[in-house]
Design a protein that fits this description.
The structure is a single chain. Helix 3 links the parallel strand 5 and strand 6. Helix 4 packs antiparallel against helix 7 and helix 5 crosses helix 6. The chain is of the alpha/beta class. The protein is 45% helix and 17% strand. The protein has a single domain, classed as Rossmann fold, CATH 3.40.50.1820. It contains eleven helices and eight strands. Strands 1-2-4-3-5-6-7-8 form an eight-stranded mixed β-sheet, with helices on both faces.
């Protein structure tokens, strides 16, 4: 199914019924189908919706792929489907989009679940552990190299440092990444480094927020999680010990339990 915003078609999938509605927002390179098993799990008790971000999956690629564009697209989805106030679950880049809707569109968001959101996008005096722009560019170069044959799989492997992750899952995610042009993936990631207002958004969040991070791999999850938790008022922090950036996919049962506990207290 699709909604339309300013002539751009944005794909979404919807299942279930029940309050509060849950909106799932994926990260860069993939699409809504990363949430398939989570939609199936929560649909018996909640109305659940997962969208394809602009430039990904079945959504149109028109227009600039900026944080403001993604924010306004997500807000349009919530408004057109009459989901407000919804619990918004954002993974990685999706977490950043979710924070902007919560702050800039009051009343649309009931609560936030931020999964491995790299809020500190660059090294600073407050985040000396974060990568410098030069380090980020060097990392991006490893993914840019032959995106279809090598880069996409290298990106997926970086999400799962934990042992025992099914090869079938990695292959499925690699296929999704290959459907998104490498130039799109790199453009969005470079824009991440240029954002300087993330701290301000985190400080202004006024809805219950669950902060989830994996501690394994090179995504600095323990540091990022503590950083977000220190800035978001009354937030709750949970670590997936030894898991990586894809913690919600490699440990789905653990993810479900933590989110259900959070929802039960709203």
């Amino acid at each position: 199914m699709f909604i339309s915003r300013d002539g751009v078609r944005l794909f979404y999938r919807e299942e279930g019924a029940g309050e509060p509605p849950i909106v799932f927002v994926h990260g860069g390179a993939v699409d809504h189908s990363t949430w398939d098993e989570h939609l199936a799990h929560f649909a018996p008790h909640h109305r659940v919706v997962a969208m394809d971000l602009r430039g990904h999956g079945q959504s149109d690629r028109n227009g600039p792929l900026t944080s403001d564009t993604f924010r306004d697209d997500l807000a349009a989805l919530i408004d057109q489907l009459r989901l407000a106030p919804a619990v918004v679950v954002g993974a990685s880049r999706g977490g950043g989009i979710a924070t902007r809707v919560a702050v800039d569109y009051p009343g649309r968001v009931k609560a936030l679940v931020l999964i491995d959101y790299g809020a500190a996008g660059r090294n600073s005096a407050e985040t000396p552990w974060a990568r410098t722009p030069e380090q980020t560019q060097a990392l991006l170069a490893t993914f840019a190299e032959d995106w279809q044959r090598v880069g996409a799989r290298r990106l997926v492997d970086s999400w799962f440092p934990d042992p025992g992750v099914p090869e079938a899952l990695k292959q499925r995610l690699t296929a999704l990444c290959r459907q998104t042009p490498g130039e799109t993936v790199l453009d969005i990631r470079r824009r991440d480094v240029e954002e300087t207002d993330r701290e301000g958004y985190l400080r202004r969040i006024d809805v219950p927020t669950l902060v989830l991070h994996g501690t394994g791999g090179r995504h600095l999850g323990r540091e990022q999680g503590a950083y977000i938790h220190s800035l978001v008022p009354h937030s709750r922090l949970y670590f997936f010990e030894g898991r990586g950036h894809g913690c919600f996919m490699s440990a789905p049962e653990e993810f479900w339990q933590v989110v259900e506990d959070f929802l039960s207290e709203l």
